[in-house]
Amino acid sequence: MGIHAFGLIELLTRIPMMVSAGIGGDLVRFALVSIVFFGVNYGLFRVLIVKFKLPTPGRMGNYLDESSESMSEDEKMDIIIQNLGGRANIAEIDACMTRLRITVNDPQLVAEYALWKPTGALGAVIKEQGVQVIYGPGVDVIKSKLVEKLSAQPA
């Protein structure tokens, strides 16, 4: 008989059975091995993360460029329009959860990702007439300001 604990509640409900079966020592060894493995894993990953700068989710990832925080919203919209090839090249603007979706007339006029990065973009995908610029959850605000700026400008 061995220890099969698939969860804390199951482990706790099996303790009386384990003790009455004479394998209470297995429970003690199980606890000691769990503590040792926790210590080994914690120590190993602490060294890997702190000393060797191992990237983990939420650390050292795609952070916004500092220049995007210092520019005004109006400047940001101007750069987005310029990166799309100008006002005349924009056919349709939409947004989903994280992406600004634009249909353009000429995809050759759309800028490469390096020019999108100062606007806070985390990525850019260009496929035929479709352009998707990844901004994250705040993309609806960018879409609204872009539509507002384009409607205020003469064609």
Radius of gyration: 27 Å
Average pLDDT rating: 85
Number of strands: 4
**Span between termini:** 80 Å
Helix content: 40-55%
Proportion of residues in β-strands: 5-15%
Sketch the topology as an H/E string, one letter per element: HHHHEEHEEH
Query: Strand order across the biggest sheet?
Result: 1-2-4-3
> Could you describe the largest sheet, including whether it forms a barrel?
4 strands, antiparallel
Shape: elongated
Ranges where pLDDT stays below 50 over 5 or more residues in a row are: none
Q: How does the helix and strand content classify structurally?
A: alpha+beta
Alpha plus pi helix count: 6
Structural topology:
Blueprint: H1 8-20, H2 24-50, H3 66-70, H4 73-83, E1 90-95, E2 99-104, H5 113-116, E3 123-127, E4 130-134, H6 139-152
Antiparallel strand pairs: 1-2, 2-4, 3-4
Helix pairs in contact: 1-2, 4-6
Features:
155 residues, alpha+beta, four-stranded antiparallel beta sheet, 6 helices, 14% strand, elongated
How would you characterize this protein structure?
The chain has 155 residues and is α+β, with helices and mostly antiparallel strands. It contains six helices and four strands, in the order ααααββαββα. The chain has a four-stranded antiparallel beta sheet with strand order 1-2-4-3, covered by helices on one side. The chain is elongated.
Short description, anyone?
By secondary structure, the chain is of the alpha+beta class. It is built from 6 helices and 4 strands. The chain is elongated.
